[in-house]
Design brief:
Blueprint: E1 9-17, E2 20-28, E3 32-36, H1 43-50, E4 58-63, E5 66-70, E6 75-76, E7 84-87, H2 99-103, H3 112-126, H4 141-153, E8 159-163, H5 171-188, E9 192-196, H6 199-205, E10 208-213, E11 216-221, H7 223-228, H8 233-238, E12 243-253, E13 256-261, E14 264-269, E15 279-284, E16 290-291, E17 305-316, E18 320-327, E19 336-342, H9 343-349, E20 356-361, E21 366-368
Parallel strand pairs: 3-9, 3-10, 7-8, 8-9
Antiparallel strand pairs: 1-2, 1-4, 4-5, 5-6, 10-11, 12-13, 12-15, 13-14, 15-21, 16-20, 17-18, 17-20, 18-19
């Protein structure tokens, strides 16, 4: 988070709906924050609470220096008084209104000239000039998405909340609109809180990632903090750090540890938890494991470790391959490594099931999890 004495949004509250409790202490500045997590973790509930569609049991929400909810002072501003733009997952466009009427729907109190000027500005920015008189059923999914975004931005909100905004779109359109959203966030300098469970979206868009689990913030930080240094094996699973492995801590030295991993010694620099003889858990992203070409000698760097593995599964996904290698001389219950390689590299490696290949792992790609309290 950008260092500021006061966050632009500070939401500290609890809300119980049936048997689910959402407990928040969230601070954001003028940035694009991605709320990431599994279904049912409370992500959409957070947005609805901030927008005023749900009321917390207790707590306080302050936005841009204004208190919009405080249970102790009995403050609870109505949704229309909060200056929050909310874009729900299904867009909620009015099918009987034109694009122009949808965009200006919340501007009915504005003077006609200002309303027209704001409409023209947003239509130009969103490139909707050619569909301005059409109704939502008559335009494409991408045009509907841009219309919903224009409507959310029309009243000049203090913050924009977006709930799975690209979920219903094809991948080509998603890629284009992700770039558009980043451009718009920079142009308007507006904080955006975006909910997704899509890994690519989270990594592409986020200035900061907040991971939700069971109604709580499980981890927050920059995208690399979260994606390369998950706080727990459970979060590692969420962000596709597929290789989570038990190792033994053999020795401690000054600012380094020696680990025993599948019959090999692994030396890591830094401060790590545990004592000699303890079990530790490490994680490695699948794209950080290298496959050595058959005709090449490994380009060894100090500390690199190598395994011989047989390719037992190839999941081709168009742009890349998710490969499963069964490691030789490893414990039977922990003998696989998942590797991801782009399709062109896969072709150059000339891989096929049953191949025995050398895999290389560099120490600086290994994440050591802190023991759970």
């Amino acid at each position: 988070m950008t260092a500021q004495s006061q966050p632009f949004l500070h939401a500290a509250f609890t809300l119980t709906v049936e048997d689910f409790e959402l407990s928040m202490d969230l601070r954001i500045n003028t940035e694009l924050v991605v709320i990431f997590g599994p279904s049912g973790a409370g992500k959409s509930m957070l947005l609805r609470t901030l927008a005023g569609l749900l009321t917390p049991d207790q707590g306080r929400i302050e936005l841009g220096g204004q208190v919009i909810y405080d249970s102790s002072q009995r403050i609870c501003l109505a949704p229309q008084a909060r200056r929050i733009g909310f874009m729900p997952q299904q867009y909620a466009l009015f099918p009987h209104l034109s694009v122009a009427e949808n965009i200006t729907y919340g501007l009915f109190r504005w003077p006609a000239a200002e309303r027209t000027e704001r409409l023209q500005e947003l239509v130009s920015i969103m490139r909707l000039d050619h569909v301005i008189d059409r109704r939502p059923p008559e335009i494409s999914g991408g045009e509907q998405q841009r219309t919903a975004l224009a409507r959310a931005l029309a009243p000049r909100p203090s913050i924009l909340l977006m709930d799975e905004p690209f979920a219903a779109l094809d991948e080509v359109l998603r890629e284009h609109l992700r770039q558009e959203l980043v451009r718009l966030q920079r142009k308007f300098e507006i904080p955006i809180l975006l909910v997704t469970h899509n890994l690519v979206e989270a990594y592409t868009l986020a200035d900061r990632v907040v991971v939700f689990q069971a109604g709580r913030i499980a981890q927050e930080g920059t995208r690399d903090d979260v994606f390369r240094r998950p706080a727990s094996p459970a979060i590692a699973e969420l962000i596709a750090m597929n290789n989570v492995i038990q190792v033994k801590l053999d020795q401690r030295r000054s600012n380094e540890v020696e680990l025993h991993w599948w019959g090999q010694k692994l030396l890591l620099q830094g401060e790590f938890p545990g004592h000699s003889g303890d079990d530790l858990t490490i994680g490695i992203r699948p794209e950080d494991i290298m496959i050595v070409r058959k005709e090449s000698k490994p380009l060894r760097q100090e500390g690199d470790i190598f395994f011989e593995g047989i390719l037992v599964e190839d999941q081709a996904r168009g742009f890349d391959h998710r490969l499963t290698f069964r490691i030789q001389h490893a414990p039977e219950n922990a003998a696989e490594l998942i590797v991801r390689v782009p399709h062109p590299i896969f072709l150059r490696l000339i891989l096929s099931r049953g191949d025995l290949r050398t895999l290389a792992v560099r120490p600086n790609t290994i994440h050591v999890f802190k023991p759970l309290a």
